[in-house]
Amino acid sequence: MLDEKNKQPYFPMDEQNEGIDEAMLKPFIRHVEDRDHTAIHTLLSSEHVAKGTMRSPHDPLSSTVNRLKEQPDRLQLVAELDDEVLGFAEVQTYFAVPRANHLATLNLLATRRDKQFRGVGSALVETVVRQCRVHWGLRRLELLVWEDNTQAIWLYDKFGFQKEGRLRDYVRSGGEFRDALAMSLLFPVCQHLKTVPEQS
Questions:
Q1: Stated pTM of the model
Q2: Element holding 183 (H helix, E strand)
Q3: Distance, CA of 2 to CA of 117 (rounded, Å)
Q4: What are phi and psi of 36, to 5 degrees?
Q5: Tens of pLDDT, residues 44-73
Q6: In the sheet where 176-186 sits, what is the strand order?
Q7: Residue 20 φ/ψ, nearest 5 degrees
Q8: Among 119, 47, 115, 106, which residue's Cα sits nearest to residue 74?
Q9: Beta partners for 91?
């Protein structure tokens, strides 16, 4: 959403963040470890994360622990600073599916409410994009975002994601149905992918 007067991104929650130190943070991005379970559960159970995802703020800790079990087709990252978890990202891959092994899905991105607008989300997205493009050599990174999550949409726009479509009444939240936007980021085609034989 743009502030028409200043042509700058405007987030309705800006007023709630007054007084926060605006200095940008430089978190360390690493893979999730067992010691992170409680902090990630607290983050994923927070009201602002539940509003922007399919999660419920009342899910038990066991649901988060089960989600965080290591799986070969899933990358889970935390943003950490001074031994505190500030954010979480999850990427689903499809390497075992021949016709989909060129893409990945950014399943979830969340930052602590008191650390928003400080570069934590950007650090996570930048790491995910680099992993997909440089290390995995993928062609496509995709995601869904609720249409009124202007903060997330602005972040994805900043990294070059393009809107591809609208999923009407995709999620029920606060007693109302909300649309989701499908977005994706396409990377240059790797040479080895140009010669992969068609498999059925």
A1: 0.82
A2: strand 176-186
A3: 16
A4: -90, -10
A5: 999 888 888 888 778 899 999 999 998 999
A6: 28-31, 74-81, 84-93, 103-111, 140-146, 176-186, 162-173
A7: -75, 135
A8: 106
A9: 75, 106
